[in-house]
Amino acid sequence: MDWRSAIKGFKSYLKLEKSLSDNSIQAYSRDIDKLFQFSEMQRVKLKPDTVSLNDLRRFIITLNELGMIASSQARILSGVKAFYKYLLMEDLINIDPSELLEAPRLSRKLPDVLNIDEINRLIGAIDLSKPEGPRNKAILEVLYSCGLRVSELTGLKISNLYLDIDFIKVTGKGNKERLVPIGNEAKKALLIWLQQVRVHLDIKKGEDDYVFLNRRGAHLTREMIFIIIKNLAESIGLKKTTSPHTFRHSFATHLIENGADLRAVQEMLGHESITTTEIYTHLDREYLRSTIIEFHPRS
After folding, report:
1. DSSP 3-state assignment of 114?
2. Which residue among the candidates 11, 34, 137, 149 is catalytic per the annotation?
3. Which of 248, 254, 263, 296 is catalytic?
4. Cα–Cα distance, 242 to 150 (Å, whole number)
């Protein structure tokens, strides 16, 4: 049994027997397509009738690691259960692997995920008339556009900006480098900061290659990024706990929610589990760039 024919049959079942709307059918289809993407990432590729309970548990854990919020995980889990209920009813499988599937209990609470309106309000609250305004806007745009860790942002170098091809090179955990596409809004904000504001700073020796500097010409610390975001959240009365990592989780969640391929999101996040194993296929730069353009809310 192959995934495409199984999903096609499932969609026909939802339409003809369950009388669901086109929007509901597409939502279910996207959920199962994510499971299909996950199956394609495995060293030994899975088919609908060879997926086990442990495979499904690892799938949900993968969604969790990408930063997907609990309610979205629950919705996908519901879609997976409906899919396997259909396969069982059609005698395409003998055992339903999703019957005992439950959402994983998280050992730690994931940061809140901001919706696109909250992202826009935070960016809109920046006072661009102040010297640090364009810099702070570029910081938030880059965090959200590229899904960076705070250490990757503070360590970002001008020599690693390839804005002519809409990419930046990021140094992540373990000094592993990766190329990440940058969206139009982030690129525009970054160029304004670099070309109109940063050029007028008196930059300290040895700090000239860092993208983001303070008013004394030294690169920003992690703590300063936290303070900038905390103050902006307070200024708009945002009750959610908001930090640089909130933008990273929002980046991943919004891309996945909008239909982006799981492999592309994992590649852009630079997860340790991907860069240290050969389980995942390497994706070409144009594919990553097209993912940002098509699925990122601010691109």
Report:
1. coil
2. 149
3. 248
4. 13
282 is catalytic: no
Specify the CATH number for 3-89; select among 1.20.140, 1.10.1740, 3.40.50, 1.10.150.
1.10.150
Catalytic residue among 173, 176, 215, 216: 173
Q: Where are the domains of the chain?
A: 3-89, 116-295
Active site residue 162: no
86 given a catalytic annotation: no
User: Does the annotation mark 188 as catalytic?
Assistant: no
The per-residue pLDDT for range 208-266, each reduced to its tens digit, is: 999 999 999 999 998 999 999 999 999 999 988 898 989 988 898 888 878 888 888 88
How is 30-66 classified by DSSP, letter by letter?
HHHHHHHHHHHHSSS---TTT--HHHHHHHHHHHHHT
Tell me how crowded residue 108 is: count the other CB atoms within 10 A of its CB: 5
Annotated catalytic residue, options 13, 84, 210, 280: 280
Of the candidates 248, 247, 255, 240, the one whose C-alpha atom is nearest the C-alpha of residue 72 is 255
The Cα 133–Cα 202 span in angstroms is 18
Please say if 280 is a catalytic residue: yes
Which CATH number is 116-295 given? 1.10.443.10
Q: Whole-prediction pTM value?
A: 0.65
